[in-house]
Amino acid sequence: MRLFMCCKPTDGKIPLIIKWSGKEYEVYISENDSVADLKREILYKTGVRPERQKLLNLKLKGKVADEECKIATLKLKQNFKIMMMGSLEQDIEQVISAPENFPEVINDLEFEDKEIAIENQEIYLKKIAKRVKEYQINILNDPRPGKKLLVLDIDYTLFDHRTTAQSGAELMRPYLHEFLTSSYDDYDIVIWSATSMKWIIEKMKLLGVDKHPSYKIAFYLDSLAMISVHTPKNGVIDVKPLGVIWGKFEQFSPKNTIMFDDIRRNFIMNPKNGLRIKSFREAHINRYKDDELLRLSRYLKKLAEHCTDFTTVNHRNWEKYKPKK
Q1: With left for phi above 0 and alpha for psi between -120 and 50, is residue 249 left, alpha or beta?
Q2: What is the residue-wise DSSP string for 21-81?
Q3: Using an 8 Å Cβ cutoff, are 60 and 164 in contact?
Q4: Domain span at residue 47?
């Protein structure tokens, strides 16, 4: 449903339609104005700041029009629909700050499996059972028979969500699409982030993961699929129990599932199925030398071809893994 009344252009300005967040907004702009002027008009209508706006189909000669480009140069027709991506400041603050209840630097010694040993405690198994019963998963692509399961975190695993950049490509971890393409041969892929579903979808679009031609994502899981547990040293923490997936899909189990996350605590309910990936930060520097995903793709290939039970492998030593003959 549109949020405006149809009317004729006024004061020599032409009407344009901005499609954002499932709604449509009408703005008026002069042909002598620039794209920067258009973004300011969009700000008044939507509340999205110009630097947050990404006008997807506003192009000149096949390239995204820069802010100095005049509207007349674009030769837009009346009521031309412009697709916009962008988030309100309060939404960005909410989803980015959600994980900040936890310290940035994690000492792995504080999360030794033998120290915690909580994965079989009845109180947490009941929480998992409740998630299995109540949490609704939106299947994007049906799981394929005979495939293993790869569960991936987003922030600092697939991209650097804190460094300033002009595009998602600048924040994306090197070899991401090559990694996902290679993994898709043997694994169904699930994205699980400790943020909101809205932000997960936004990030996957930004990275070009949602509709890539060489691989498909089975489904997304957000913070609502996580559970809270109590640890002796760190108090109450939120974790990602793989049992939520195993309870909903009988073809997946501890034997054929592996999870990558840059924070070890996220898989303390499944310590034998988690691999702590090196954090990807300061993308402007490290995107030229980070090859973690390239090397991990080879590890996943070895697991898929030679290992029938992932819980028998110490994933902390993945770089030295040699399949048994």
Answers
A1: beta
A2: TTEEEEEEE-TTSBHHHHHHHHHHHH---GGG-EETT-EETTEEPPTT-BHHHHTPPTTEE
A3: no
A4: 14-86
CATH number at residue 284: 3.40.50.1000
Two structure tokens written together for 314: 């110490």
Number of structural domains found in the chain = 2
272, 147: one domain:
yes
Model confidence pLDDT, tens digit, residues 66-100: 888 999 999 898 999 998 887 776 665 554 444 44
CATH of the domain at 49: 3.10.20.90
CA distance 208 to 195: 19
Amino acid at 107: N
Summarised one tens digit per residue, pLDDT across range 269-314 is: 999 999 999 999 888 888 888 999 999 999 999 999 999 999 999 9
19-54: buried (b, 16+ CB within 10 Å) or exposed (e) per residue? Answer: ebeeeebbbbbbeebbbebbbbbbbeebebbbebbb
Closest CA to 20 of 104, 74, 83, 66: 83
